[in-house]
Amino acid sequence: MDLETGPFQNHVKKESWKTVLTLAYQSLGVVYGDLSTSPLYVYKSTFAEDIRHSETNEEIFGVLSFVFWTLTLVPLLKYVFIVLRADDNGEGGTFALYSLLCRHARVNSLPNCQVADEELYEYKKDSIGSATNSNFGARLKSTLEKHRVLQRFLLVLALIGTCMVIGDGVLTPAISVFSAVSGLELSMSKEHHKYVEVPVACIILIGLFALQHYGTHRVGFLFAPVVLTWLLCISAIGIYNIVHWNPHVYQALSPYYMYKFLRKTQRGGWMSLGGILLCITGSEAMFADLGHFSQSSIKIAFTSLVYPSLVLAYMGQAAYLSKHHVVDSDYRIGFYVSVPDKLRWPVLVIAILAAVVGSQAIITGTFSIIKQCSALGCFPRVKIVHTSSKIHGQIYIPEINWTLMLLCLAVTVGFRDTKRMGNASGLAVITVMLVTTCLMSLVIVLCWQKSVFLAICFIFFFGTIEALYFTASLIKFLEGAWVPIALSFIFLIIMCVWHFGTLKKYEFDVQNKVSINWLLSLGPSLGIVRVRGIGLVHTELVSGIPAIFSHFVTNLPAFHQVLVFLCIKSVPVPRVKPEERFLVGHIGPREYRLYRCIVRYGYRDVHKDDMEFEKDLVCSIAEYIRSGIKETNGANDDVGKEDNKMTVVGTCSTHTDGIQLSEDDGDIIESASTSEMREIRSPPVIHPRKRVRFIVPESPKIDRGAREELQKLMEAREAGIAYILGHSYMRAKQGSSMVKKLVINYGYEFLRRNCRAPAYPLSVPHASTLEVGMIYHV
Q1: What is the pTM of this model?
Q2: In DSSP terms, which residues pair with 538 in a beta bridge?
Q3: Angle at 350 between CA 345 and CA 355, to 5 degrees
Q4: Ranges for the K+ potassium transporter integral membrane domain (predicted)?
């Protein structure tokens, strides 16, 4: 059930140069599809309105200089050489940076965190061997940990970046496909073209989103060849245009041409930066998709192929335009006009395929980041379909897919030109980059423990560049830039309402949990009849007894002979190793047969709740009984500290030398005992049913009490498992503010009623489920 043990672990990726080069080739289709298609619309968006192409060529050379240095400073210098190093155990993206900060300073937004979580291998790995914090770093960490306002601001900052990524998931497919299809305008009259361009783009977009449920692995092998062909195509056309039209265009790479450009165009030149900004769309994907590849492969692919191809493509377009100053309409500044006539149709086909690949990458990235948000309690639960059994990152979310499609079609039909689409896309892209810059400056001080001077230099240098582009994009608010702001605002409201409601629900659970001493005072039978079977009480609490259980036992006279309080929670790491999956402990003396089991998953983990999970759960409790019985006996004298005595237990596959669980049908199977293993069987029964047996290692010896406890657990497992689930309704208590009533009574309840049920009960048999309803007044 743990797919993270597959071939995507980082150490596997870095075995050899052959592996690195293979990953570099594969990254072309997944990571660089969006970035590589930017030449389709950069010059067209830049010269759309604010500046004009003149005989002096100062405008076109100035734009080329801006494009070159923007590509060099942001994707190459910032991302390739700096940001890629800030990975969260191999994962990248906005939430990976936030997760990294949460582990180095206690600013985590997850309510049910434990000290035991800090002992996870992935949690500690990045801090091994690090130097002592500087004085400023220590003060900064202390300040963040003391002030809840700063912690909330940090979370909101990460959420803003996430919302802009989702907005980019709407805008990138629209502008990429629309720009690729715009090549048809050179092959037909303008009167006919306007009736063809939008329908063709919409048909392609509908087909793109309709095929998402098949998963990218079915057509993924085509992605890298398509982008590779596209990059070779635009670089070859660029070289042809440079040689044929203006071999001296390389001189425009000098920063001096940026100064001449701004001196001549002034305010118009500054406003045109919103179009130039589009040359770095997709740069964030290098960091966001880091979990699928490795730093070396992404760096090699960008520096050796993507970067040179893009520079040649932009230089080639500038060389062509420097010799063609008479234009009939704005589309003559576009990409296709610089393509030789005989190659336009083949290039058009390749461009459409490359645009689809680039759109696919951002759509998959949107699915991935929403999954991360949902795992960390910042987004309503959605249905997550894993389209590949081998590649954990390839997922499909139906609700998000169709929402993106409708929004994407609305943008395409509503705008109908690359100018306003570019304004919208540019603002989304630069906002994500600004958020990354801010979070990176904190990572430099808190995680890397470098000098604050380096952090200030980083945020000042890159922040100034990005702020310049941000202001140029924001000024186009009424000309399309309002779209990502509106989308981000809607998604941010949803995330904040859900997170606030989730925190309030947990706070209510904590305040109303039942004392363990009260439970133990009922005696070993808990004051009720104990019937055969295992009762799993699902709770968000990591300590104490949930209120739903006391509500249950006061209304029903019987309960199961083995009772497990089960908590399935997320921790701020990408993945939890199977060896560290479970935390198991006793509640009270062992004759009570009360256990607490905490199951931990990372925000990139894949977990399927099926019969295999039940087997792992029972096996982990059995292994805890075998190996931890002495610790538990010592804890009996101080029942209030039961949570401090929990033991880390792995899944069945991780402790092959420990207890193994075997299940078969009613027929008696002869023992396969050897000198190393012996069996504990359940007693014979009259009617046929599933037989359960524990295969216990011969050494070390287990005492009689542990053997009896294992016998009872085995009998209970054989009788079956029942699931007790809480079904809560939240209401703001009397005297609450109007805003709180609006958020809790209407906002959170609307999201709760319309989102998916918790992931754990989805596969629980209905005949084995009992829901306990309660009204929470928060």
Answers
A1: 0.83
A2: 566
A3: 125
A4: 23-520
Separation of CA 772 from chain center: 32
Question: What does the block give as tokens for 622?
Answer: 């059995």
Return the H-helix or E-strand segment holding 582: strand 582-586
Helix axes 135-146, 418-446, angle to 10 degrees: 110
Do 178 and 356 touch, CB atoms closer than 8 A?
no
Distance separating alpha carbons of residues 157 and 468, to the nearest angstrom: 20
Q: Indicate the range of 187-196, 441-450, 649-658 predicted with least confidence.
A: 187-196
- Would you state the structure tokens that stand for residue 360, as one six-digit string? 């696919």
**Between the CA of residue 418 and those of 43, 202, 276, 422, 482, what are the distances in Å?**
11, 14, 13, 6, 15
Are 61 and 257 in contact, with CB atoms under 8 Å apart? yes
Average pLDDT over residues 61-68: 94
Cα 395 to Cα 382, 387, 402, distances in angstroms: 12, 5, 14
pLDDT, one tens digit per residue, over 307-361 is 999 999 999 999 999 988 765 544 457 788 889 888 988 999 999 999 988 888 7
Q: What b-and-e string marks burial along 410-432, b requiring 16 or more CB atoms within 10 Å of the CB? A: ebbeebebbbbbbbbbbbbbbbb
β-strands 558-571, 594-602 pairing: parallel
Q: Distance between CA atoms of 755 and 398, rounded to whole angstroms?
A: 12
Which 8-state DSSP code applies to residue 637?
Answer: T
pLDDT digits (tens, 9 = 90+) for 578-622: 888 889 988 878 788 889 999 888 887 776 556 677 888 888 888
